[in-house]
Amino acid sequence: QVQLVESGGGLVQAGGSLRLSCAASGRTFSNYAMGWFRQAPGKEREFVAAISWSGGSTYYADSVKGRFTISRDNAKNLVYLQMSSLKPEDTAVYYCAAAPSTTWKYNYWGQGTQVTVSS
Q1: At 76, phi and psi to the nearest 5?
Q2: Phi and psi (nearest 5°) for 32?
Q3: Environment class of residue 43 by beta-carbon count within 10 Å: exposed (0-12), middle (13-18) or buried (19+)?
Q4: Closest to 79 in 3D by CA, of 16, 17, 11, 8
Q5: Residue 27: pLDDT band by 50, 70, 90 thresholds?
Q6: Which of 14, 50, 59, 62 is 20 to 30 A off residue 101, Cα-Cα?
Q7: Partner residues linked to 59 by β-bridges
Q8: 3-state DSSP call for residue 90?
Q9: What's the pLDDT at 61?
Q10: Nearest CA to 96 among 12, 28, 25?
């Protein structure tokens, strides 16, 4: 089992920045690829960003490319999502997820943290 706890959400004005953190506990953190997803009211959950176990590979949704940066610190069992140039359409609950590096199937999820961007 892997337990994930997100933090860092909040209310920010359009154009502002936030950094989300996800703390992992349980199994060896470095065995897992990590991802961020989000779900806005009335919409399905969507992929935001992902990072490989080593941090050497990162992936982004087109909607956030160039504005968001995913990173991880395997020594501290943390993964981050630095969000800049935020837009009202970025408003959502953001979830951290873990996937075994051999499958990239996300089977562990955090409880989510709310991000609200005001115009």
Answers
A1: -110, 0
A2: -120, 135
A3: exposed
A4: 8
A5: confident
A6: 62
A7: 50
A8: helix
A9: 98
A10: 25
